[in-house]
Amino acid sequence: MSDKKYFGNCKEATFNHNGQQFTKIRIGLSRDHLQEMISLVNDKGWINLDLSQRASPSQYGDTHSLSHNDWKPDTSQAREAIQSISPQSQSGQPNQHGTTMDNMDQDIPF
User: Positive or negative CA dihedral for 28, 40, 6, 49?
Assistant: First the structure.
């Protein structure tokens, strides 16, 4: 993962409406931050952001932070995981659970 990029300012606001108390997060973004966020859009047209509560408010009263989430799955680990749970490996040998297609068919009650 690369260095985290933070955007704008985020403040928690609490208000009453018709006797009910509500909380919302107000987010302020500059034009520069918006342009930078657009440059981070992934190949599927999305950008993932994390809104996190700060340990303590900033000197400007920011209670939350907004950051770019650039996590991507490790496709090699995903392939290995799929192969480890598949009924039969590519070589025709039993998987880690000792299952092959032949003895799997015998376990089916119909």
Answer: positive
Q: Which residues, including other chains, have CB under 8 Å from residue 9's CB and lie 6 or more apart? A: 27, 28, 60, 62
Query: Helix (H, G, I), strand (E, B), or coil: what is residue 101?
Result: helix
Domain boundaries, the chain: 6-68
Q: 9 forms bridges with which residues in the sheet?
A: 28
Average pLDDT (24-41) is 96
Give phi and psi for 65, each to the nearest 5. -125, 150
Checking if the pLDDT of 31 tops 90, the result is yes
Q: What is the pLDDT of residues 73-85, one digit of tens each?
A: 777 776 777 777 7
Can you give the pTM of this predicted structure? 0.62
- Beta strands, E only, the chain: 6-17, 20-28, 49-53, 64-68
